[in-house]
Structure formats: structure tokens, C-alpha cells
Recover the amino acids of this structure.
């Protein structure tokens, strides 16, 4: 990920230096009046990555949204909400946005937590800074399956409409019965999933080896990991409540 680290105060810029050190390739953005502090903060790990601007930080947001995959802002949460609000499009294209308090105690993913990777970024920074990641997405807070990022670390791609992702995600976090059918791909996806899961699979998830084994009427959602095409009859019955995952292939 291409990451921009933004800070607007002296103390925040000092913390920003630690953030840059934890994110190889990250770029620091700060006001021109704090150029010396910004350049000093990234030494000795990342010289030459400080960029200073004149005027308001809000004027930098369009360029940051266009050029970076993620933004780490050492700015108050409320201020960041107001700064980015006019530039939001949708979760498929918006960058990950993570906010850190100036004391470095809390790391909060506030935008594009799953698809954009803000939750994973927050987890990494929390570990690096000795801070607490504040995860508010239901699947991460409860350490269940994030339907839209299942197997992403392994290169899996999903095939589903927006409505199907919403419906299957709701079934997962609301403890409705979910069938997980794995016919292909690595079996090592749970402990390496998202920020990592330490406990057992969620109790509402039942695993199967073949799609034909599933009593489709019993399940609110079906997650199918396979290379083959879904049989037409089953596809019709599962329309609206299924997500297909393709290990090692593109959508």
C-alpha cells in the first residue's frame, strides 16, 4: 500500500516519524511551518520522505485521495470526518483512512476497513506503537469471518453483487446459519485471515467439502470456495445469498 501520514502539530509530527518507520515507503505530510520538525522526525530511517505544504490541510485531501491507497492521520477524529466527507465515493475506491490520537494510545480505522485495508493497517500500527486498535466493524470486533475479505491474504477473489455481500455479511454477524463449502484453495485461511483469529470458527458456520452436500434450505448464506462453475440449478436456488471465492484466479 502507498501510505500518506498526515500531521499538523509538533507533537503529532514526532509520532508521525514512528508511524513512517513502521511503514516502509510511507510519506509524511505536514505544514511548511513545521518543516524542520517533519524532516527530523523521519531520521534516520526514512530521509527524504517529508513533504510540506502551505495553507490548509483540507486543501491537500483531493491529491492524497488520488495518489495514495491509505492515509494515516494524526488529527482528531471529528476533524478528519469533516475533511474527507466531501471526497467520499464508495468503499470499492475510497482509500483506507486510519486516525491516531496525538498521544499514540489509540489507532482507529475509520474508512475502508475491510476492502481498503484500514483494519489490517490499524492492527499493524497498534502493534508497532504499543497502542490499542479500535475496531468497530462487527466481524472484526467479534472475530468472525469478514465475508468481503475471506482469503484475500492468499490471493482469493470473490464473485458477488453488493447486495449479496451485504446479505451474507449480515447473516454472519447476526449468528444466522452459514454454510462454508471449500472445494479448492489453501486450508490455512482462518488464523491468517484479516488481523488473525485466535479462537475456533464461529459457531454459526458449518463446513462442507462439496456444495452438493449442503441442505440449502437450512442456511441463510453460503460461502463457496471453488474453481468450477456453480451448477445452474444450485445457482438459481442460492441467488442473493451466496458468495463465490476463486483461489488464485481473478474475478
Amino acid at each position: 500500500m502507498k501510505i500518506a501520514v498526515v500531521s499538523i502539530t509538533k507533537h503529532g509530527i514526532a509520532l508521525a516519524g514512528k508511524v513512517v518507520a513502521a511503514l516502509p515507503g510511507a510519506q509524511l505530510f505536514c505544514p511548511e511551518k513545521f518543516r524542520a520538525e517533519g524532516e527530523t522526525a523521519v531520521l534516520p530511517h526514512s530521509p527524504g520522505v517529508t513533504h510540506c505544504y502551505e495553507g490548509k490541510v483540507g486543501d491537500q485531501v483531493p491529491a492524497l485521495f488520488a495518489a495514495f491507497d491509505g492515509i494515516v492521520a494524526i488529527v482528531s477524529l471529528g476533524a478528519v470526518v469533516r475533511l474527507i466527507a466531501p471526497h467520499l465515493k464508495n468503499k470499492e475506491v475510497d482509500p483506507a483512512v486510519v486516525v491516531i490520537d496525538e498521544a499514540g494510545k489509540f489507532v482507529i480505522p475509520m474508512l475502508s476497513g475491510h476492502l481498503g485495508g484500514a483494519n489490517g493497517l490499524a492492527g499493524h500500527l497498534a502493534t508497532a506503537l504499543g497502542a490499542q486498535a479500535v475496531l468497530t466493524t462487527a466481524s472484526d470486533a467479534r472475530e468472525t469471518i469478514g465475508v468481503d475479505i475471506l482469503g484475500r491474504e492468499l490471493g482469493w477473489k470473490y464473485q458477488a453483487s453488493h447486495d449479496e455481500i451485504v446479505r451474507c455479511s449480515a447473516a454472519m454477524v447476526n449468528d444466522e446459519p452459514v454454510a462454508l463449502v471449500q472445494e479448492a484453495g489453501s486450508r490455512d485461511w482462518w488464523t491468517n485471515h484479516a488481523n488473525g483469529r485466535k479462537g475456533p470458527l464461529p459457531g454459526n458456520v458449518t463446513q462442507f467439502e462439496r456444495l452438493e452436500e449442503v441442505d440449502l434450505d437450512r442456511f441463510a448464506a453460503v460461502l463457496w470456495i471453488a474453481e468450477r462453475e456453480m451448477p445452474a440449478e444450485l445457482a438459481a436456488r442460492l441467488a442473493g445469498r451466496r458468495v463465490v471465492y476463486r483461489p488464485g484466479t481473478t474475478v
Q: What stands out?
A: The two ends are 21 Å apart (CA to CA).
